[in-house]
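Justification of computing resources. Each target in the renewal requires a structure prediction run like the one illustrated here; the chain below, 268 residues long, is used simply to show the kind of job we budget for.
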Amino acid sequence: MSENVTRRNVLKNLAGIVGGILALPAARTCQAAVRNVFATAQAPKGYDPFKHKWLMALDVDRCIGCGFCVEACKAENSVPQDNFRTWIERYVVTRPKPGSGESRGDTFVDSPDGGIGGFKPSLIPKEDVLKSFFVPKLCNQCENSPCSQVCPVGATFESPDGVVLVDKNYCIGCGFCIQACPYGCRFLNPETHTADKCTLCYHRITRGLRPACVEICPSQARIFGDLKNPIADDPLQRFIENNKTQGLKAHLGTKPRVRYANLDEEVR
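Resulting structure tokens:
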């Protein structure tokens, strides 16, 4: 048995104890120190997370449901089969029943294979469809992230540059963060047995590259940038200025850093 596996098993047994310890003021200081130490995980030497503030924006009207982003994400981040760091959902809103007095009918949501390969025609008759659209989903990089609040060992943490990360060397695979995420954006990696999620391709953006999903999107539905270091004619700044954006489930107070434009009221 390897040293890492042995260490993980020990930490699993101590998870409950550590969770109680973290309630103490001294432990909070230690946890903050851990977050600072691992804030540059997978980042190049010399990268300063305090000098950046990354943000992803999505234009629902532009998404065509091609699924290229999902395929690129899985290839770039070695995402296991049947798991997704990002995926596409199709929403089909039906017309209201005659005489119901409603402005719209039922809403149907599907995401076959995360949207890879696109979507087959809906089984709902065209004459019954009021509107149909696609919505990209991913980790919302919450400013008040429930996942980091429940992690008993500080493996999940919020980096100063606006990305919620997971240190796989410390994760004990308890699944608390997966249960706490109100967006269903986390999963337990069956190969590493640790929590996994979108990191905005942290290994890319800290080297001046864009996330794989943004790079491949043919309709430019995904807009990405650095709020602290805008470039000339910055697409992100222009998008924010020209659109009213919002986060998913804003009523939860998680303050998502991933922003949506043209979001329908049915999206959840």
